[in-house]
Backbone:
C-alpha cells in the first residue's frame, strides 16, 4: 500500500499535460522546469562510434563488414562507454547527464536505401525489450547506469515510438495492424507529418490506433526461443489490467520503454521523432515513466541520486528559440494545427536553432535566449542547445575552424548544453566519401589526444563544463550585460549564487569590479584558472595567463 501511495503521489507531480491529464497534471504543465535540467550539460554519443570495450561482440547476429563507408557497425559498445566512465572522463568534463542513441535490439540485416547500411545508429528497432548484442547486454547497461549514478551523472535513454526498423532479408515486415508503409510523409500539414511513413523504408507504427492487436509473430517466436515468452505475456497482462489501456501498438511500446526505467532507474528519455507521433501518447509515456521511476526509487533508496522527477526531452525537428523555423513561441506550427509539446509531458525540447544562431556574437545569442527563457515565450521552460548533431547537416563549424570560440558560445549560453561526442576534441564532422549523415558520425578520435592542441582544447571544455556544473545560475539564470570592454555579464537565479563572466580580459594581472553582485569579503573562484580572490572594495584581483574569467562563489571546503 505504501508503494501504491508513493506512486500515485509521483503521478500527480509528474508535470504532464494534454488529453486525459488530471487537473494537477495540467497545472504542472505550466510550471517552471527544474533548474538542474535548464542548466544541464548533456553528453550525446552513439555507442557504436565511441569506444570498443569488447571486440568479441563486433559482429553479432551474423552482421558483416560489408557496409558503405561509416554505415556499418564499428565495434563501439557499452563496455567501452563504461571504461570511459570509470576513468572519470565525463566527470572531468563536467557532464551532468549522458544520452546514448538507442541500445535496444536492432534489425539484423542491412538496408540499401542510402547505400548498404546496418543499424549501428540504434534508430531501427526490432525488439524493444532487449539490448542489441552489438552494444552488449543488460548487465553492461546496468553497470553503465550504476557507475554514472555513483558520479552524480544521470542517464537518458533514447526512445522510439514512431517506427520499426526497415524490412530486410532477415527482418520481416510487422503485421498490418501494427504498421503502415504508405503514404510517405509529404510534410504539408499535421497528417502529412504524423499519419505516414517518414521514408519508404521505415514502417510507421499505427500510433493513431486504439484497436487491440496481437503480438507480432516474429516476437512471439523469438521470445519462445529465448525461454521468456510466458514471462513477457504475464507482464503485458498485468500492465494492461493495471492501466486499462487497449492492447493497441503504442501502449505495448509504452510498456516496453518504461520497463527500462522500472528495472534500472533510468532518469529520463530523449524522445526521437516527437513531432511525427500524436502528441497525446507522449503524456501517457511521461505518466508511465514517472510511475516507473517512483517505483524504482522506492525499491532502491540506497541507489537513487535524489527525488527529482522523471525528465523527458523531445526532438521536435525544426523547433527552436525565438520563432526559429515553424516555431511560434512555445508551439510547433504544422500549418493546420499548432502543438505545444511542453503540455504533453516534455520538460525540454532540443533547440534546433542554436546551430544557426551560433554564428552571431556571444551577446546577441545570450541576450536573445535570456529574453525568451525569462519572461518571454519560453519562460521557465527547458531547451537544449547544440553545435553539432548526428542528423543536422547545418551543424555549426563542421570544419572545426573555431572550436574554442564555439565551446564558449555553447557552454556559456542560457539553456542546457548538448555536447555531441567529440566536440571537446574536435572530432571530424566531415569525412571524405562518407555519404549523407554518416559523415557526421565518425569514430571518436581518441588518437588525437596525443596532440598538445587537442589536449588544450579538451582542457578548455573541461573548465567550461566544471563551471557550468558548479553553478546552476549559468544556464538557468537571467543574463545581464555589464560591460562591453572587456565583455562582462552576469547570470542570476533566485535562491542560487550569481556568476560573473568576463571575456577578452588582459592576460597576467587583472582587476574586475563585481557590480554589486557579491559583498566585500566574499571569496570568488575563477573556474578557468582555479585561483581565488576575495572581493575587496567591490573588486577582485587575479593574475592568470588566460583572457577570460569565470567567477562563482568558492564552494565550501569539506
Residues:
Amino acid at each position: 500500500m505504501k508503494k501504491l501511495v508513493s506512486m500515485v503521489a509521483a503521478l500527480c507531480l509528474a508535470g504532464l499535460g494534454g488529453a486525459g491529464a488530471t487537473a494537477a497534471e495540467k497545472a504542472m504543465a505550466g510550471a517552471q522546469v527544474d533548474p538542474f535540467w535548464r542548466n544541464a550539460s548533456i553528453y550525446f554519443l552513439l555507442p557504436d562510434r565511441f569506444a570498443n570495450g569488447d571486440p568479441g561482440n563486433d559482429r553479432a547476429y551474423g552482421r558483416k563488414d560489408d557496409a558503405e563507408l561509416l554505415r556499418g557497425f564499428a565495434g563501439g559498445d557499452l563496455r567501452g562507454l563504461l571504461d570511459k566512465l570509470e576513468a572519470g572522463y565525463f566527470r572531468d568534463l563536467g557532464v551532468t547527464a549522458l544520452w546514448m542513441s538507442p541500445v535496444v535490439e536492432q534489425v539484423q540485416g542491412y538496408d540499401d536505401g542510402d547505400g548498404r547500411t546496418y543499424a549501428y545508429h540504434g534508430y531501427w528497432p526490432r525488439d524493444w525489450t532487449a539490448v542489441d548484442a552489438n552494444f552488449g547486454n543488460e548487465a553492461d547497461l546496468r553497470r553503465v547506469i550504476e557507475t554514472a549514478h555513483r558520479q552524480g551523472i544521470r542517464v537518458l535513454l533514447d526512445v522510439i515510438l514512431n517506427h520499426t526498423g526497415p524490412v530486410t532479408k532477415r527482418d520481416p515486415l510487422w503485421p498490418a495492424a501494427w504498421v503502415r508503409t504508405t503514404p510517405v510523409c509529404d510534410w504539408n500539414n499535421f497528417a502529412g507529418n504524423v499519419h505516414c511513413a517518414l521514408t519508404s523504408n521505415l514502417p510507421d507504427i499505427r500510433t493513431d490506433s486504439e484497436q487491440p492487436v496481437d503480438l507480432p509473430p516474429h516476437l512471439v517466436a523469438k521470445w519462445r526461443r529465448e525461454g521468456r515468452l510466458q514471462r513477457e505475456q504475464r507482464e503485458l497482462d498485468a500492465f494492461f489490467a493495471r492501466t486499462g489501456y487497449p492492447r493497441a501498438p503504442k501502449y505495448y511500446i509504452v510498456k516496453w520503454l518504461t520497463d527500462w526505467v522500472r528495472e534500472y532507474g533510468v532518469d529520463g528519455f530523449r524522445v526521437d521523432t516527437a513531432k511525427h507521433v500524436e502528441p497525446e501518447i507522449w503524456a501517457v509515456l511521461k505518466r508511465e515513466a514517472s510511475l516507473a521511476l517512483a517505483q524504482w526509487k522506492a525499491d532502491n533508496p540506497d541507489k537513487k541520486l535524489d527525488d527529482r522527477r522523471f525528465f523527458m526531452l523531445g526532438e521536435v525537428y525544426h523547433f527552436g528559440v525565438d520563432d526559429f523555423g515553424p516555431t511560434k513561441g512555445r508551439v510547433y506550427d504544422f500549418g493546420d494545427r499548432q502543438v505545444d509539446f511542453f503540455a504533453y509531458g516534455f520538460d525540454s525540447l532540443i533547440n534546433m536553432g542554436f546551430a544557426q544562431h551560433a554564428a552571431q556574437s556571444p551577446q546577441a545569442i545570450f541576450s536573445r535566449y535570456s529574453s525568451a527563457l525569462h519572461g518571454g515565450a519560453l519562460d521557465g521552460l527547458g531547451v537544449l542547445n547544440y553545435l553539432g548533431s548526428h542528423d543536422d547537416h547545418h551543424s555549426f563549424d563542421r570544419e572545426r575552424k573555431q572550436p574554442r570560440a564555439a565551446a564558449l558560445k555553447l557552454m556559456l549560453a542560457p539553456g542546457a548544453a548538448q555536447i555531441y561526442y567529440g566536440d571537446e576534441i574536435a572530432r571530424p564532422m566531415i569525412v571524405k566519401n562518407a555519404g549523407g549523415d554518416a559523415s557526421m558520425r565518425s569514430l571518436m578520435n581518441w588518437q588525437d589526444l596525443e596532440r598538445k592542441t587537442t589536449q588544450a582544447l579538451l582542457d578548455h571544455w573541461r573548465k567550461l563544463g566544471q563551471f557550468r556544473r558548479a553553478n546552476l545560475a549559468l544556464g538557468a539564470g537571467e543574463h545581464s550585460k555589464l560591460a562591453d570592454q572587456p565583455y562582462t555579464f552576469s547570470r542570476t537565479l533566485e535562491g542560487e549564487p550569481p556568476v560573473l563572466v568576463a571575456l577578452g580580459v588582459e592576460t597576467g594581472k587583472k582587476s574586475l569590479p563585481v557590480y554589486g553582485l557579491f559583498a566585500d569579503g566574499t571569496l570568488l573562484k575563477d573556474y578557468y584558472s582555479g585561483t581565488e580572490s576575495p572581493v575587496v572594495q567591490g573588486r577582485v584581483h587575479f593574475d592568470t595567463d588566460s583572457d577570460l574569467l569565470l567567477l562563482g562563489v568558492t564552494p565550501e571546503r569539506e
Observations:
- The CA atoms of residues 250 and 345 lie 16 Å apart.
- The chain is about 30% helix and 20% strand.
